[in-house]
Amino acid sequence: MKIATYNINGVNGRLPVLLRWLKEAAPDIVCLQELKAPDDRFPLKAINDAGYEVIWHGQKSWNGVAILSKLGRPLEVRRGLPGDATDMHSRYLEAIIANRFVIACIYLPNGNPWPGPKFDYKLAWFKRLTKHAKALLAHDVPVMLVGDFNVMPTELDVYKPESWVNNALFRIEAREAFERLMKLGWTDAIRELYPKERIYTFWEYFRRAFQRNAGLRIDHFLLSKHFRGRLLSAGVDVKVRGWEKTSDHAPVWIELEDK
DNA sequence: ATGCCTGCTTGCAGCAGA
Predict the structure, then answer these.
(1) What is the CATH number of the domain that holds A77?
(2) Which of A1, A144, A203, A224 is most buried (CB neighbours < 10 A)?
(3) Model-level pTM greater than 0.85?
(4) What is the pLDDT of residue A259?
């Protein structure tokens, strides 16, 4: 079973890229972030025609998440992260896949500029996520948190760490929040298989970042202990970042042994 | 320190992204 995450940066503007990648990579499950479209502008027919059932939570202009599946329609269990009824951003969607596991599609706030209210919102969101993640783990069923966490966990995840220390994606408070989440018992799937390699999932549009491989690793798969021993492979479809009209993120994927 | 690019908007310049 192949599961992917892809910050698409505009699901309609990038639709040709998305469809081409879906056809080539053929993942069974896909978490999308940054749809940048309201619910009624989601390209449902194109996604269905590509062979996927889908649930989505859109929003005008910004944010928006979706879960695509070839294994039957995802059974939605939650839209929106609990803990703040006033938070209207579409950043969290949780579903059960094929009665086998829970998947949470996550688009964690960017948080820039630091310092400021956006950074405070990021940390607050992180705190809510960690609390909810703890509750999820308490159910003792297979669960994974998948998506754009907008955090580089370590210096290995940044092409030039010293120039990012005051950026919301790499501020120590954000890294510590990520670590607190991880300490609940999650496995970072990419790092599990590649503990020491420089692996990036995002490259800025400017400064010829992609050509220079000046990238960041901010899209992650966090797996509960139930998946131990089932992680077969993982990777980043880097070439997609080089396509015309592409997102600034590349798709990231893992392959799990079927059970 | 800022902008670099890019998508989105009851758009045409400003915001957000990372």
Answers:
(1) 3.60.10.10
(2) A144
(3) yes
(4) 75
